[in-house]
Structure formats: structure tokens, C-alpha cells
Amino acid sequence: MTRITLDDLDLRILSELQADSSISNLELSRRVHASAPTCLRRVRALSDAGVIARQIAIIDPSKLGPALTAVVEVSLDRQTAEDYDTFESYICAEPVVTQCYRVSPGPDFVVIAEVGDMAQYDELARRLFKSSSNIRNVRTFFSTRRAKFEANAPIRPNVSR
């Protein structure tokens, strides 16, 4: 594991890009008080080092029609490293699954899925959870309101990767 030391300029760049990665390099340089070539070089270095994993557009699912967010706790019967990896690969391949976390203590996984309605969730649950012989328990919560959603990581100096 290579340790990456981030200076104040790196932190300002990351903060601005997390707020809006679609800004131009010229606008970024203006906001962080550095030259455009310096910003371009720093962004490339942060990308090459894996600090910036990718740049994406965050879409509000409610703007695309009815949306239902399911927060699903999953416990497995067998809990070997291979069983965890198998379940993780299986669940992460599903397009409506937007997040998947291994957690402890409690269930083995917490999965976030964005579906259109309860019928779509029911179809997803039948296909994914009822067909697997290694799932002990599934407990689902449905979001009634999204109070906050951020994809931002806390900006800290001296990050290790």
C-alpha cells in the first residue's frame, strides 16, 4: 500500500471537484487560486494515483419517474470469505443495486436498491434473495424521504491507498 500525501492545493482541488466535477480546468484554477497548468497536472496525478477513482453524474431518481429506495439487510448461512465474495459479485451485478456494504456486527451485508415501485422490488427479491441457498435472512426497509444524499468523501490530508 502506497501512502499518498496530499497538500493544501490537492485538498482544495478535491473539494471543488466533489462539488462539481463538470467545471472547466480554467474555472477550477480560478476557484483554488492556482494556474491552469498546475491544476491540470494535479488532477491527472490524483487520477493516476487512484485518489480520483472516476467522475460521474449524480442523477435524482425521482426526476425519472416513480422511485422506491430499498435498504436491505442480508445475512448469509455460510460466512466464509468465498461465500462473501460470491454474494457480493452476485448482488453487485444487478443494475438496480446502487450500493453494497459488508457490515459488522449484525447482518452480513447492507444493500441499497433503487426500483420503480413495490412490484419491481418484489420481482427483484424473488430473483435475488429467494433463489439463493445461502441466504439466511433478508430484512428490507423502504425510504419514505431522502433527507440527505452525498457522494462526497471526507477530505483529509495524508490519505493512504
TrEMBL record:
It comes from the Bacteria. SMART domains: HTH_ASNC. GO terms for cellular component: cytosol. GO terms for molecular function: sequence-specific DNA binding. The keyword Transcription regulation applies. Residues 6-67 form the HTH asnC-type domain. Keywords: DNA-binding, Transcription, Transcription regulation. InterPro entries: ArsR-like_HTH (IPR011991), AsnC-type_HTH_dom (IPR000485), Dimeric_a/b-barrel (IPR011008), Tscrpt_reg_AsnC-like (IPR019888), Tscrpt_reg_AsnC/Lrp_C (IPR019887), WH-like_DNA-bd_sf (IPR036388), WH_DNA-bd_sf (IPR036390). GO terms for biological process: regulation of DNA-templated transcription; response to amino acid. PANTHER family: LEUCINE-RESPONSIVE REGULATORY PROTEIN, TRANSCRIPTIONAL REGULATOR AZLB. This is AsnC family transcriptional regulator.
